[in-house]
Amino acid sequence: MRLLLDENISPALVHRLAEYGVYSQSVPHVGLSGRTDREIWRYALDHNFVVTTNARDFIQLLDVEVPSGLIVLRESGLTRDEQWARILPVIQYVQESGDEDLLINKLVEVAGVRRFEVRQIP
């Protein structure tokens, strides 16, 4: 599993994700600060990343030809620890499934701690 953390997600989570064997990068660390959502989405597609964001705008970009996965935190203004508390159960879900590609072409909407729904991207 490869995650690209949008600007609204703490870059400090890259290290926490690495502890769980998840390769991730943060938008600012790959030179995409201030870029449009479409540019970030294109980067994710080109580099096989699942985008992790709390911006609902990304859902509107799901009309691309070969969509990557998307994890959306439905709450805004979360601290780094609150973001982690919402992302970690999704990571554990994928790891327990044994399918590292489980989130490809999927939308994961996270509504709270351990409250998420996985749907196929149409």
Quaternary structure classification: single chain
Silhouette? globular
Q: Strand order, biggest sheet?
A: 2-1-3-4-5-6
Count of all domains: 1
- The residue-averaged pLDDT reads 88
Measured as a percent range, the helix fraction is 25-40%
Low-confidence stretches: none
N-to-C span: 21 Å
Largest sheet properties:
6 strands, mixed
Structural class from helices and strands? alpha/beta
* Backbone CA Rg: 13 Å
Number of beta strands: 6
Number of helices: 3
From N to C, what is the helix and strand string?
EHEHEEHEE
Strand content: 15-25%
3D structure, described in words:
The protein has 122 residues and is an alpha/beta fold. It has one domain (2-120). Helix content is 29%, strand content 24%. The chain has a 6-stranded mixed beta sheet with strand order 2-1-3-4-5-6, with helices on both faces. It is globular and about 35 Å long. 30% of the residues are buried.
